[in-house]
TrEMBL record:
Superkingdom of source: Eukaryota
MARVEL domain: residues covered: 26-153
Keywords: Membrane, Transmembrane, Transmembrane helix
Keyword Transferase tagged: no
Organism of this sequence: Xiphophorus maculatus (Southern platyfish)
Bilayer topology: Multi-pass membrane protein
Classification via InterPro entries: Marvel, MARVEL-CKLF_proteins
Localization in the cell: Membrane
Disordered as annotated region, ranges: 161-185
Name of this protein: CKLF like MARVEL transmembrane domain containing 6
Family matches, as PROSITE patterns: MARVEL
Length: 185
């Protein structure tokens, strides 16, 4: 009896796949591709940096390592969450703000880390290539940031609230309705 009542109205949601996919409320196809590019470029920069065997001044190398590793891991996590239905189970309701700030901050950190590492390294080929991939990753993050702004706008600019009147009577309407109260035109 219960199956007869609920079977016709209960339908699975075909638009909510669990697996990775570019179609999401928070991640469209171009940004999905940019996120994958960011993950790959960050990984290559990190791996190249890890192959550096000696350093005279290791602080820039360690900062570049931190930024590239952090960018790789957290961008992969963000990509996984935003391209699956898991983002709804995490308990964060402001995903556009998180994605906006994260993308901007990683772009800035990649810019700083790449400049510092380019200025203070041992001038080996591996270090030079790591710096190039750091700059490429920074460009990918900036492109993602620009596409985010064009598609979704600034997430911190909400709808403007109407001005408060502090209990004052609002002014009468300037435009009269067509016809009078008795229905005559």
């Amino acid at each position: 009896m219960a199956n007869e009542v609920y079977a016709a109205t209960t339908v699975s949601n075909p638009k909510a796949p669990f697996w990775l996919g570019p179609a999401s409320e928070h991640l469209n196809t171009p940004r999905f591709a940019l996120k994958i590019l960011e993950v790959l470029l960050s990984l290559v920069a990190f791996v190249l940096e890890e192959t550096v065997s000696t350093c005279l001044n290791c602080s820039p190398l360690y900062f570049f390592e931190f930024v590239s590793c952090t960018a790789f891991l957290f961008t992969a996590l963000l990509l996984f969450l935003l391209s699956t239905t898991l983002h709804s189970r995490v308990g964060i309701s402001c995903w556009p703000k998180v994605d906006f700030l994260y993308t901007l901050l990683i772009a800035v950190f990649f810019f700083i880390a790449s400049i510092v590492f380019a200025a203070n390294n041992g001038k080996t080929t591996v270090e030079a290539v790591a710096v190039v991939f750091g700059f490429l990753a920074m460009v990918a993050f900036i492109l993602d940031f620009i596409v985010f702004l064009k598609v979704k706008g600034h997430p911190f600019q909400g709808a403007q609230a109407p001005p408060t009147t502090n209990g004052a009577v609002p002014p009468p309407e300037a435009e009269k309705l067509n016809g009078d109260a008795n229905g005559k035109a």
